[in-house]
Amino acid sequence: METRSIMIVGVGGQGSLLASRLLGNVLLAKGYDVKVSEVHGMSQRGGSVVTYVKYGDEVCSPVIEKGEADVIISFELLESARWVPYLKKGGKLITSTQKLDPMPVITGAAQYPEDIAEKIKALGIDVTAVDALALAEQAGNSKASNVVLMGVVSTKTDFEESLWQNAIEQCVPPKFLELNKKAFELGRNA
């Protein structure tokens, strides 16, 4: 199998580390060679973060260059726009519709761009946009939007749901397990 590349992008504190663990767990269970990068960026200060996930028969490096990503999973709309140049022709963008103001918007030096998902779709990119934050709140905790989004991702792959459920059981602490299972299911049904 040729190597496939997935980028997980967002803002520090949105749970990209758990999302990459879930995805990596599923890919390993399918028998792929998997390389996952560390989170890059100011993950503890609300800055932009990115995680690279590559899988296939043999993967030498997790780094993804511009135009190489098969899928971008984005936890925040502006991050979708920031990283879309890394998507390959025919690639897919799965994004939350959540908006988090970056510092230039907070200080009044800039305005948050309008209609980001529509502008990306206008480029001919396959975009799936979901209000993951609202679904996470419905599940019981806004911090579960990352798992909601992974539920959406699970419907776009051909990996069995049981593998995703096993990954959640292995990666999520027991006291948060039921909440995250509910968040995942809401994402699958979105």
What does this molecule look like?
Helix 2 (77-83) links the parallel strand 5 (69-74) and strand 6 (87-96). Strands 1, 2, 3, 4, 5, 6 and 7 form a seven-stranded mixed β-sheet that branches. The model has no long low-confidence stretch (mean pLDDT 93). The protein has helices at 16-29, 77-83, 103-106, 116-121, 132-139, 145-155, 161-171, 177-189; strands at residues 4-11, 33-36, 40-41, 48-56, 69-74, 87-96, 126-130. It has a single domain, classed as Pyruvate-ferredoxin oxidoreductase, PFOR, domain III (Pyruvate-ferredoxin Oxidoreductase, domain 3), CATH 3.40.920.10. It has eight helices and seven strands; from the N terminus they run βαββββαβααβαααα. It has 190 residues and is α/β, with parallel strands linked by helices.
